[in-house]
Amino acid sequence: MKKFKPIFVLVSFLIAITLIIPAILVVPFMDGKASGKLGVDLSKPPAKETAAPSADAAVTVSVYRSSKGKIENVQLEDYLVGVVAAEMPADFNEEALKAQALTARTYIVKKMLSKDTTGVPKGAQVTDTTMNQAYESDDKQRADWKADYSWKHKKILDAVRATSGQILTYKGEAIDATFFSTSNGYTENSEDYWQSSIPYLRSVPSPWDKNSPKFNSKQEFTVSDFEAKLGVKLDKDIGNITGLTAGKRVAKVNFNGKILTGKDIRDKLDLRSADFKWERKGNNIIVTTKGFGHGVGMSQYGANGMADEGKNYKDIVKYYYQGVEVTSAENLFATITAQK
Protein backbone atom coordinates (compact mmCIF):
# COMPACT_ATOMS: atom_id res chain seq x y z
CA MET A 1 0.00 0.00 0.00
CA LYS A 2 2.94 2.38 0.66
CA LYS A 3 3.83 2.62 -3.02
CA PHE A 4 0.57 4.51 -3.72
CA LYS A 5 1.25 7.23 -1.11
CA PRO A 6 3.12 9.69 -3.44
CA ILE A 7 0.29 9.51 -5.95
CA PHE A 8 -2.28 10.15 -3.23
CA VAL A 9 -0.35 13.20 -2.01
CA LEU A 10 -0.05 14.58 -5.52
CA VAL A 11 -3.77 14.20 -6.18
CA SER A 12 -4.61 15.85 -2.86
CA PHE A 13 -2.30 18.76 -3.66
CA LEU A 14 -3.89 19.34 -7.07
CA ILE A 15 -7.40 19.30 -5.58
CA ALA A 16 -6.38 21.82 -2.97
CA ILE A 17 -4.87 24.15 -5.56
CA THR A 18 -8.05 23.90 -7.68
CA LEU A 19 -10.18 25.00 -4.73
CA ILE A 20 -7.93 27.64 -3.21
CA ILE A 21 -6.93 29.72 -6.29
CA PRO A 22 -10.52 30.75 -7.34
CA ALA A 23 -11.25 31.69 -3.73
CA ILE A 24 -8.16 33.92 -3.63
CA LEU A 25 -9.28 35.67 -6.83
CA VAL A 26 -12.86 36.25 -5.62
CA VAL A 27 -12.16 37.42 -2.03
CA PRO A 28 -11.26 41.07 -2.89
CA PHE A 29 -14.70 41.55 -4.51
CA MET A 30 -16.80 40.07 -1.72
CA ASP A 31 -17.16 43.24 0.39
CA GLY A 32 -20.46 44.39 -1.11
CA LYS A 33 -18.77 46.73 -3.62
CA ALA A 34 -18.29 44.31 -6.45
CA SER A 35 -19.81 46.48 -9.18
CA GLY A 36 -17.71 48.60 -11.46
CA LYS A 37 -14.77 48.33 -13.80
CA LEU A 38 -11.14 47.43 -13.21
CA GLY A 39 -9.18 50.52 -12.26
CA VAL A 40 -12.21 52.32 -10.80
CA ASP A 41 -12.19 53.37 -7.16
CA LEU A 42 -15.37 51.68 -5.97
CA SER A 43 -15.29 53.42 -2.61
CA LYS A 44 -16.50 56.61 -4.31
CA PRO A 45 -20.08 56.98 -5.59
CA PRO A 46 -20.36 57.16 -9.40
CA ALA A 47 -20.76 60.62 -10.88
CA LYS A 48 -24.35 61.42 -11.91
CA GLU A 49 -25.03 61.99 -15.60
CA THR A 50 -26.78 65.29 -16.22
CA ALA A 51 -28.62 66.25 -19.39
CA ALA A 52 -27.43 69.36 -21.18
CA PRO A 53 -29.76 72.30 -20.42
CA SER A 54 -32.29 73.06 -23.15
CA ALA A 55 -31.65 76.23 -25.15
CA ASP A 56 -35.38 76.94 -24.72
CA ALA A 57 -34.87 77.33 -20.96
CA ALA A 58 -33.80 80.95 -21.45
CA VAL A 59 -37.25 82.14 -22.56
CA THR A 60 -40.61 82.49 -20.80
CA VAL A 61 -43.90 82.98 -22.64
CA SER A 62 -46.83 84.96 -21.19
CA VAL A 63 -49.92 83.01 -22.27
CA TYR A 64 -53.46 84.31 -21.86
CA ARG A 65 -55.52 81.35 -20.66
CA SER A 66 -58.89 82.03 -22.27
CA SER A 67 -60.89 79.58 -20.15
CA LYS A 68 -59.50 81.05 -16.90
CA GLY A 69 -59.33 84.68 -17.98
CA LYS A 70 -55.80 85.10 -16.64
CA ILE A 71 -52.19 85.22 -17.79
CA GLU A 72 -49.72 82.44 -17.03
CA ASN A 73 -45.95 82.66 -17.49
CA VAL A 74 -44.82 79.41 -19.05
CA GLN A 75 -41.25 78.26 -19.74
CA LEU A 76 -40.78 78.00 -23.52
CA GLU A 77 -40.15 74.26 -23.54
CA ASP A 78 -43.40 73.61 -21.62
CA TYR A 79 -45.25 76.02 -23.89
CA LEU A 80 -44.06 74.19 -27.00
CA VAL A 81 -45.05 70.82 -25.55
CA GLY A 82 -48.50 72.28 -24.89
CA VAL A 83 -48.78 73.64 -28.44
CA VAL A 84 -47.73 70.40 -30.12
CA ALA A 85 -50.08 68.45 -27.83
CA ALA A 86 -52.98 70.69 -28.86
CA GLU A 87 -52.12 70.98 -32.55
CA MET A 88 -50.96 67.49 -33.63
CA PRO A 89 -51.93 63.92 -32.62
CA ALA A 90 -49.26 62.42 -30.33
CA ASP A 91 -49.36 59.14 -32.25
CA PHE A 92 -47.94 60.84 -35.35
CA ASN A 93 -44.44 59.94 -36.50
CA GLU A 94 -41.66 61.44 -34.36
CA GLU A 95 -40.26 63.40 -37.32
CA ALA A 96 -43.65 65.01 -37.96
CA LEU A 97 -43.83 66.00 -34.28
CA LYS A 98 -40.36 67.54 -34.55
CA ALA A 99 -41.48 69.53 -37.59
CA GLN A 100 -44.49 70.75 -35.63
CA ALA A 101 -42.31 71.72 -32.65
CA LEU A 102 -40.04 73.67 -35.01
CA THR A 103 -42.92 75.59 -36.59
CA ALA A 104 -44.42 76.32 -33.16
CA ARG A 105 -41.10 77.70 -31.85
CA THR A 106 -40.63 79.78 -35.00
CA TYR A 107 -44.12 81.25 -34.64
CA ILE A 108 -43.72 82.36 -31.04
CA VAL A 109 -40.16 83.67 -31.53
CA LYS A 110 -41.27 85.83 -34.47
CA LYS A 111 -44.27 87.09 -32.52
CA MET A 112 -42.22 87.97 -29.45
CA LEU A 113 -39.53 89.74 -31.48
CA SER A 114 -42.11 91.83 -33.36
CA LYS A 115 -43.98 92.59 -30.10
CA ASP A 116 -47.19 91.94 -32.04
CA THR A 117 -49.98 91.57 -29.47
CA THR A 118 -52.92 92.11 -31.82
CA GLY A 119 -56.03 90.60 -30.23
CA VAL A 120 -54.11 89.60 -27.09
CA PRO A 121 -55.08 90.98 -23.65
CA LYS A 122 -52.67 93.48 -22.09
CA GLY A 123 -49.72 91.82 -20.36
CA ALA A 124 -49.85 88.65 -22.46
CA GLN A 125 -47.81 87.80 -25.54
CA VAL A 126 -50.07 85.12 -26.99
CA THR A 127 -53.43 83.43 -26.44
CA ASP A 128 -54.02 79.70 -26.07
CA THR A 129 -56.47 79.55 -28.99
CA THR A 130 -56.13 79.01 -32.74
CA MET A 131 -56.14 82.80 -33.13
CA ASN A 132 -52.45 82.28 -32.37
CA GLN A 133 -51.50 78.69 -31.56
CA ALA A 134 -53.67 76.30 -29.59
CA TYR A 135 -52.04 75.41 -26.25
CA GLU A 136 -52.88 72.80 -23.60
CA SER A 137 -51.44 72.88 -20.08
CA ASP A 138 -49.90 69.81 -18.50
CA ASP A 139 -53.04 69.38 -16.36
CA LYS A 140 -55.22 69.39 -19.49
CA GLN A 141 -52.95 66.83 -21.16
CA ARG A 142 -53.25 64.55 -18.12
CA ALA A 143 -57.04 64.91 -18.10
CA ASP A 144 -57.39 64.26 -21.83
CA TRP A 145 -54.86 61.44 -22.21
CA LYS A 146 -55.45 59.67 -18.88
CA ALA A 147 -53.56 56.33 -18.96
CA ASP A 148 -51.76 57.37 -22.16
CA TYR A 149 -50.34 60.55 -20.63
CA SER A 150 -46.90 59.18 -19.80
CA TRP A 151 -45.91 57.96 -23.27
CA LYS A 152 -47.64 60.74 -25.19
CA HIS A 153 -46.09 63.49 -23.09
CA LYS A 154 -42.63 61.94 -23.34
CA LYS A 155 -42.91 61.51 -27.09
CA ILE A 156 -43.83 65.17 -27.59
CA LEU A 157 -41.23 66.38 -25.08
CA ASP A 158 -38.56 64.39 -26.93
CA ALA A 159 -39.62 66.06 -30.21
CA VAL A 160 -39.40 69.52 -28.66
CA ARG A 161 -35.97 68.79 -27.16
CA ALA A 162 -34.69 67.30 -30.42
CA THR A 163 -35.25 70.71 -32.04
CA SER A 164 -34.23 72.78 -29.00
CA GLY A 165 -33.19 76.31 -29.89
CA GLN A 166 -33.98 75.94 -33.60
CA ILE A 167 -36.25 78.09 -35.76
CA LEU A 168 -37.00 78.48 -39.47
CA THR A 169 -35.56 81.48 -41.27
CA TYR A 170 -35.71 82.94 -44.76
CA LYS A 171 -32.82 85.26 -45.66
CA GLY A 172 -31.92 85.46 -41.99
CA GLU A 173 -35.40 86.37 -40.71
CA ALA A 174 -37.83 84.18 -38.77
CA ILE A 175 -40.64 83.09 -41.07
CA ASP A 176 -44.42 83.07 -40.73
CA ALA A 177 -44.55 79.33 -40.11
CA THR A 178 -48.21 78.79 -40.95
CA PHE A 179 -49.62 75.27 -40.86
CA PHE A 180 -52.94 73.47 -41.16
CA SER A 181 -54.45 70.00 -40.84
CA THR A 182 -55.05 68.49 -44.27
CA SER A 183 -54.60 69.67 -47.85
CA ASN A 184 -56.71 68.82 -50.86
CA GLY A 185 -53.59 67.35 -52.46
CA TYR A 186 -51.84 70.73 -52.81
CA THR A 187 -50.82 73.56 -50.52
CA GLU A 188 -51.74 77.13 -51.39
CA ASN A 189 -49.85 80.24 -52.45
CA SER A 190 -50.07 82.78 -49.65
CA GLU A 191 -51.61 85.48 -51.86
CA ASP A 192 -54.46 83.16 -52.83
CA TYR A 193 -55.64 83.13 -49.21
CA TRP A 194 -54.16 86.30 -47.72
CA GLN A 195 -53.16 89.54 -49.43
CA SER A 196 -49.37 89.22 -49.34
CA SER A 197 -47.23 87.13 -51.68
CA ILE A 198 -44.63 85.45 -49.46
CA PRO A 199 -41.76 83.74 -51.31
CA TYR A 200 -41.47 80.71 -49.03
CA LEU A 201 -45.23 80.06 -48.89
CA ARG A 202 -45.67 78.55 -52.36
CA SER A 203 -48.07 75.89 -53.57
CA VAL A 204 -46.57 72.38 -53.61
CA PRO A 205 -48.15 68.95 -54.19
CA SER A 206 -49.09 67.12 -50.99
CA PRO A 207 -50.35 63.67 -52.04
CA TRP A 208 -49.96 62.12 -48.57
CA ASP A 209 -53.06 63.97 -47.32
CA LYS A 210 -55.41 61.62 -49.13
CA ASN A 211 -54.87 59.20 -46.22
CA SER A 212 -56.15 61.76 -43.71
CA PRO A 213 -59.51 61.01 -42.08
CA LYS A 214 -60.28 64.70 -42.64
CA PHE A 215 -59.69 64.64 -46.40
CA ASN A 216 -63.37 64.45 -47.40
CA SER A 217 -66.34 66.11 -45.73
CA LYS A 218 -69.92 67.04 -46.50
CA GLN A 219 -72.23 69.76 -45.19
CA GLU A 220 -75.89 70.45 -45.93
CA PHE A 221 -77.72 73.80 -45.95
CA THR A 222 -81.26 74.84 -46.69
CA VAL A 223 -81.50 77.20 -49.65
CA SER A 224 -82.70 80.05 -47.44
CA ASP A 225 -79.85 79.52 -44.95
CA PHE A 226 -77.33 79.32 -47.79
CA GLU A 227 -78.62 82.59 -49.28
CA ALA A 228 -78.63 84.34 -45.92
CA LYS A 229 -75.11 83.32 -44.99
CA LEU A 230 -73.67 84.37 -48.35
CA GLY A 231 -75.90 87.40 -48.94
CA VAL A 232 -76.96 86.16 -52.37
CA LYS A 233 -80.17 85.26 -54.17
CA LEU A 234 -80.20 82.00 -56.10
CA ASP A 235 -82.09 81.16 -59.25
CA LYS A 236 -81.71 77.91 -61.18
CA ASP A 237 -77.94 78.08 -60.84
CA ILE A 238 -76.30 77.98 -57.44
CA GLY A 239 -73.35 80.00 -58.66
CA ASN A 240 -70.68 79.68 -61.31
CA ILE A 241 -67.09 78.97 -60.28
CA THR A 242 -65.00 81.30 -62.44
CA GLY A 243 -61.48 80.37 -61.41
CA LEU A 244 -59.21 78.15 -59.32
CA THR A 245 -56.15 78.99 -57.27
CA ALA A 246 -52.67 77.49 -57.71
CA GLY A 247 -53.63 75.00 -55.00
CA LYS A 248 -56.74 73.82 -56.94
CA ARG A 249 -59.16 75.56 -54.60
CA VAL A 250 -62.02 77.83 -55.61
CA ALA A 251 -60.78 81.32 -56.42
CA LYS A 252 -64.05 83.10 -57.28
CA VAL A 253 -67.75 82.36 -57.71
CA ASN A 254 -70.24 84.49 -59.63
CA PHE A 255 -73.73 84.66 -58.13
CA ASN A 256 -75.77 86.54 -60.74
CA GLY A 257 -73.18 89.32 -60.89
CA LYS A 258 -72.10 89.22 -57.25
CA ILE A 259 -68.54 87.90 -56.96
CA LEU A 260 -67.35 86.09 -53.84
CA THR A 261 -63.94 84.55 -53.30
CA GLY A 262 -63.54 80.93 -52.25
CA LYS A 263 -62.16 82.16 -48.93
CA ASP A 264 -65.27 84.35 -48.41
CA ILE A 265 -67.54 81.38 -49.02
CA ARG A 266 -65.49 79.07 -46.81
CA ASP A 267 -65.59 81.57 -43.94
CA LYS A 268 -69.28 82.42 -44.25
CA LEU A 269 -70.43 78.80 -44.56
CA ASP A 270 -67.79 77.58 -42.07
CA LEU A 271 -66.54 75.00 -44.56
CA ARG A 272 -63.49 72.85 -43.88
CA SER A 273 -61.80 73.91 -47.10
CA ALA A 274 -62.04 76.26 -50.05
CA ASP A 275 -61.89 73.24 -52.36
CA PHE A 276 -65.64 72.70 -52.60
CA LYS A 277 -68.40 71.55 -54.92
CA TRP A 278 -72.13 71.75 -54.42
CA GLU A 279 -75.43 70.52 -55.76
CA ARG A 280 -79.03 71.40 -55.11
CA LYS A 281 -81.45 68.70 -53.98
CA GLY A 282 -84.94 70.12 -53.56
CA ASN A 283 -84.79 72.77 -50.86
CA ASN A 284 -81.30 71.80 -49.75
CA ILE A 285 -77.75 72.44 -50.98
CA ILE A 286 -75.14 69.73 -50.40
CA VAL A 287 -71.56 71.01 -50.19
CA THR A 288 -68.63 68.57 -50.40
CA THR A 289 -65.08 69.64 -49.60
CA LYS A 290 -61.57 68.25 -49.87
CA GLY A 291 -59.01 69.04 -47.19
CA PHE A 292 -59.24 70.80 -43.83
CA GLY A 293 -57.75 74.23 -43.21
CA HIS A 294 -56.54 77.29 -45.08
CA GLY A 295 -53.94 75.30 -47.02
CA VAL A 296 -51.00 77.69 -46.60
CA GLY A 297 -47.66 76.34 -45.31
CA MET A 298 -47.15 72.92 -43.76
CA SER A 299 -49.82 70.26 -43.95
CA GLN A 300 -49.78 68.25 -40.73
CA TYR A 301 -51.07 65.04 -42.31
CA GLY A 302 -48.73 65.63 -45.22
CA ALA A 303 -45.83 65.96 -42.77
CA ASN A 304 -46.82 62.69 -41.15
CA GLY A 305 -47.01 60.98 -44.54
CA MET A 306 -43.55 62.24 -45.47
CA ALA A 307 -42.16 61.06 -42.12
CA ASP A 308 -43.67 57.61 -42.62
CA GLU A 309 -41.79 57.43 -45.93
CA GLY A 310 -38.50 58.08 -44.14
CA LYS A 311 -38.13 61.85 -44.42
CA ASN A 312 -36.75 63.69 -41.38
CA TYR A 313 -38.12 66.90 -39.90
CA LYS A 314 -35.70 69.11 -41.84
CA ASP A 315 -36.75 67.46 -45.12
CA ILE A 316 -40.38 68.12 -44.21
CA VAL A 317 -40.11 71.81 -43.33
CA LYS A 318 -37.87 72.57 -46.30
CA TYR A 319 -40.44 70.98 -48.59
CA TYR A 320 -43.43 72.92 -47.28
CA TYR A 321 -41.54 76.21 -46.75
CA GLN A 322 -39.55 76.84 -49.91
CA GLY A 323 -35.99 78.18 -49.54
CA VAL A 324 -35.88 78.25 -45.73
CA GLU A 325 -33.08 77.28 -43.38
CA VAL A 326 -33.11 75.65 -39.95
CA THR A 327 -31.21 78.13 -37.78
CA SER A 328 -30.11 78.51 -34.16
CA ALA A 329 -32.27 81.02 -32.30
CA GLU A 330 -30.01 81.47 -29.26
CA ASN A 331 -29.02 85.04 -30.21
CA LEU A 332 -32.69 85.87 -30.73
CA PHE A 333 -33.49 84.35 -27.33
CA ALA A 334 -31.00 86.76 -25.80
CA THR A 335 -32.75 89.66 -27.55
CA ILE A 336 -36.16 88.52 -26.31
CA THR A 337 -34.88 88.16 -22.75
CA ALA A 338 -33.28 91.63 -22.87
CA GLN A 339 -36.57 93.19 -24.00
CA LYS A 340 -38.33 92.20 -20.78
From TrEMBL:
GO biological process, one term: sporulation resulting in formation of a cellular spore
Name of the protein in its database record: Stage II sporulation protein D
Record InterPro entries: Bact_Sporulation_Assoc (IPR051922), SpoIID/LytB (IPR013486), SpoIID/LytB_N (IPR013693), Spore_II_D_firmicutes (IPR014225)
PANTHER family listed in its UniProt record: AMIDASE ENHANCER, N-ACETYLMURAMOYL-L-ALANINE AMIDASE-RELATED
Domain Sporulation stage II protein D amidase enhancer LytB N-terminal: 66-170
Transmembrane segments: 7-30
Alphabetical keyword list: Membrane, Transmembrane, Transmembrane helix
One cellular component (GO) term of this entry: outer membrane-bounded periplasmic space
NCBIfam families with a match to the protein in the record: SpoIID_LytB, spore_II_D
Pfam families per UniProt: SpoIID
